[in-house]
């Protein structure tokens, strides 16, 4: 799926979710909260399928270097999915404590901190890599 198609699909799913959410919050529809979140769950399923397809394609091409990126994506999407489930449970059943609802969100934030922290540090360079292209080409001044 190309970038434009993914962006349009994302905006369409978000639009459908927000319309249904507004209708539910204004009491124009009396759906269960789990039904209101179906567009987001559909989007999560498609994201997981896309990540799995990318993993299989990269593994098939023997490009195992960047596979660890996709494990963060899949775990993040699964935690987002659990966060949505706990939000729906909290909205349906008021007796559930707020901290129980927030556990998957906190785990997702911790995962994001680890992902960003491990990918922001510069790559280690080998000794002698500071030489310019001119020096390495054998051109003397």
TrEMBL record:
Top-level taxonomic group: Eukaryota
InterPro entries reported in the protein's UniProt record: TM_Fragile-X-F-assoc (IPR019396)
Entry keyword set: Membrane, Transmembrane, Transmembrane helix
TM helices/strands, residue ranges: 32-52, 72-93, 99-120
Name of the featured protein: Transmembrane protein 60
Species this protein is from: Anopheles melas
